[in-house]
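Bench log. Compound arrived from synthesis this morning; before running ITC I wanted a structural hypothesis for how zinc ion sits in the protein. Inputs:
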Amino acid sequence: MVDRKLPTRAEDFAEWYNQLVVRAEMADYAPVRGCMIVRPYGWALWENITAALDRRFKATGHLNAAFPLLIPRSFIEKEKHHVEGFSPELAVVTIGGGEELEEPLVIRPTSETIIGHAYAKWIQSYRDLPVLINQWNSVVRWELRTKLFLRTLEFFWQEGHTAHATLEEAEAETRQMVDVYTDFAFKEAAVPVIPGRKSESEKFAGADITYSLEAMMADGKALQFCTSHNLGQNFAKAFDIKYLDKTGVQQHCWTTSWGLSTRVVGAIVMVHGDDQGLILPPRLAPYQAVIVPIFKSDEEKKTVFEAARKMSKELIAAEIRVKIDERDGMSPGFKFNDWEMRGVPLRIELGPKDVASGNCVLARRDRPGREGKTTVSQQGIAPVASKLLGEIQEALFQRALEFRKANTVTPKDYGEFKAAVEKGFAMAHWCGSAECEAKIKEETRATMRCIPLEQTSGPGKCIFCGKAAAEQAIFARAY
Ligand SMILES: [Zn+2]
């Protein structure tokens, strides 16, 4: 193992990311271009993400189910915008069991169509509504440029699909899931997302309204954290999802869909990491604390390990995810750097002197060097560690929020706007025209990220054309 340094983020942010994800053993490249292998450390982080979300989905009345990977191609063609949006990215199966298939099958790029087909069978009456289902799966959208977690041909996610009796109920569901995701982003991922509405050109293929949560990465670029779509009656009409209302009249349902993917792993890396490596938010970190035993002789090793195991037991009993680094033949210094690179929030250093005095040293990952170190008693370590993990979680959120605020500009003119999107977000009035949006994109490479639900000022003038603009939008270069 060579202790090479990562490139700094200022030197080469993209290369810092690429090397870090591989060296922290989160993911690896696959033999098929565009695919990725998620390694146990990356998967453990994803599992904690899924658990935190799944809890929230169930608390809001949703149930999990599983729909097939293969979808008849004709299904995708039923909704006009959907087929236009997804056709270029489809993987199609034409041979099965050695024989040419009568109808080609597509590998799901998303499941609105196959779920719409099932809902049409299951929903008969207003009594069957609402239907609130989520599924955890992977989907395929053909992609040749691999960027681990951020852009891959196959990615893991959840997709929620609901059906309702009225537009109002469908819109309330769509907005509820925006709130659920925002709560997750703030409290679990420590990412200060901005919830908002997408423009016509940026919305989901087949949706009436798309909401997204936008996050600022540490290089000032935006990343779409997740989306929630009000699909209107588009899929209900394409798939004949109907119900008999209370007066006995046939009505089309109103449907929604919402999803969050493994891209969020990439977001967590890029929001919180520093030049030494990952900094994982304690609530999602695979290991919240790691104990590094320090010893020279076998005798010292024995007493230090004994104390380490005792502490580990106490921490586990307090539901803290802890690991003792028992690896042989590596110096404590190497181990410190290794866990720092992997972003473990809390390091517990334990040597023979500490054991003798009944103490240990706690080192916070978010505050490198002496500043983040404290000596505490081994006795009662669990409540101390627990409190510290809570503080780290909060500090990460605050730091990310301050960074975003410092790099968000409300430009007075187009010149200021252009300078702003070089470094971060521009919160600017936009008249709503696709033409202004396209020209801005062409001239600055910044896209309309969202129209924030929370506006910071009333109506104004479009930053590009100067015409009346009812709302402000976030513009930024994006992943
Ligand atoms: Zn305009």
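What the model suggests: DSSP finds 14 helices and 25 strands in the chain. The chain has a mean pLDDT of 96.
ITC booked for Thursday regardless.
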